[in-house]
Amino acid sequence: MRLAYSTWPEITAFLVDSKTVVIPIGSNEQHGPMGLLGTDWMCPEIIALAAEKIASEKNTALMIAPTFNIGMAQHHLGFAGTISLRPSTFMAAIEDWVLSLARHGFDHIYFLNGHGGNVATIEASFSQIYARYSYTGETCPLMLKLKNWWDLPGVATLCNKLFPVGHGMHATPSEIAVTYAAYPEQVRHVDLIPKIAPSGPILDALDYRARFPDGRIGADSSLATIELGQEIIAMSVQGLLADVQEFSAQVKPA
Ligand SMILES: [Zn+2]
User: Fold this and answer.
1) How far is the CA of 214 from the centre of ligand 1 (A)?
2) Looking at the 3D structure of the chain, how many domains does it have?
3) What is the pLDDT of residue 229?
4) What is the separation of C-alpha 14 from the centre of its chain, rounded to a whole number of angstroms?
């Protein structure tokens, strides 16, 4: 079930049986010469929607929230098209999304993330939300979870097998393959020089551009294919269904 394609009475009815919602979250940022700017929000969205389809075929509704498609990407601002929220803005927005959903009764909120640069800020947002209750001594009804799609069960093992050399950290062939599988009309063919991009630390935008001139870090994006993307999506979907089921069953001690 997709929240944005539901009516409010349908959401009210859903909440009778389930209080879990999955939020795909990512970033709109450069992904080298072959990767789409939306790669980091598309990957979790593609996986979440495919999982939702399978769940609904089995009559077990999985609620997918609208995709949170702008993240913390200050280091990518040296490349055209990147849109970034600074950490403080991002935290405030995450808190408001969570509290809006909690207001209606969702109490298990699962963020399926597609951008490594979001992790620290999402975790800090969770602490900020929990702190509201910790300082007042009120019972917090919420369980919040962050999962990167590449950390879903089986996915890292598969990606290591598919791309033993040239996977890298940014504009990776695995994430680009996922988007190519979902949007075959968007496949790009580019001669990458060097084939495997340099690696190094991530600081500010100008430093990033100097260290990683075409935007990639350690990756050979040209290894991405539609077929490999389909394989990665299938593994991720199974992993997500299992992980969300386990999360939904978790209860706080009384
Ligand atoms: Zn990415």
Assistant:
1) 14
2) 1
3) 98
4) 24
